[in-house]
Amino acid sequence: MISINLKDQKEKENYKLLTSTIIPRPIAFVTTQSRDGVVNGAPFSYFNIVSANPPLISISVQRKENGEMKDTARNIYDAGEFVVHIADDDNIEQFNMAAANLPSCESELEYAKLTPIKSEKVRVPGVREAKVRMECQLVKSIVLGGNGAEAPGCDFFIGEVVFVHLDEQIYDESRINIREFKPVSRLAGTNYATVGNIFFMERPK
């Protein structure tokens, strides 16, 4: 067994270690809207469920090296709303294209040829190409890591899912059909994975 003290390593080394061992990770494509009305879209794999009662999810948006906020984080702070889409085999290339480093005044949706679609409960649009769309309202935000207040490491958001849109092809009798959904997960580096072998195992009572 190899033992590593992460405090003895550089940030890049810890990043590689964590992202290559905590796998697979679901990919959230998050849309937000700026004060000027620009719709921002970006994929995040630091994403998961927090609670079912109420329905809460979390997203961690890493800061730039100088501690500057990314557009997604700034827009969530300003508007208190965002929409989460789950990446799948049919949209992953467009979602990945939206990760391009564009100026704040430009929309990644236009760049990646994604189609905005009006939301039901929030003002932020979603994207039509996703099979799963979750409209969220911000519940809590926490600034974490980095060098403290001068150059934080990330902005951690917890949002309540207030409305969900599902493609008819993947939803049957209150269950998600994984084979039809074809979700894509993030591994390490430029590696991704689709759902392979599915097995069932009962939990102990």
Automatic annotation (TrEMBL):
Cofactor(s) in the UniProt record: FMN
Coiled-coil zones: none
Flavin reductase like domain ranges (all copies): 20-179
Entry's Gene Ontology molecular function annotations: FMN binding; oxidoreductase activity, acting on the CH-NH group of donors, NAD or NADP as acceptor
Organism: Ureibacillus terrenus
PANTHER family: FLAVIN REDUCTASE LIKE DOMAIN-CONTAINING PROTEIN, FLAVOPROTEIN OXYGENASE
Protein name according to UniProt: Flavin reductase family protein
Superkingdom, natural source: Bacteria
Keyword list, A-Z: Flavoprotein, FMN
UniProt-listed Pfam families: Flavin_Reduct (PF01613)
Family indicated by similarity: Belongs to the flavoredoxin family.
Database matches in InterPro entries: Flavin_Rdtase-like_dom, Split_barrel_FMN-bd
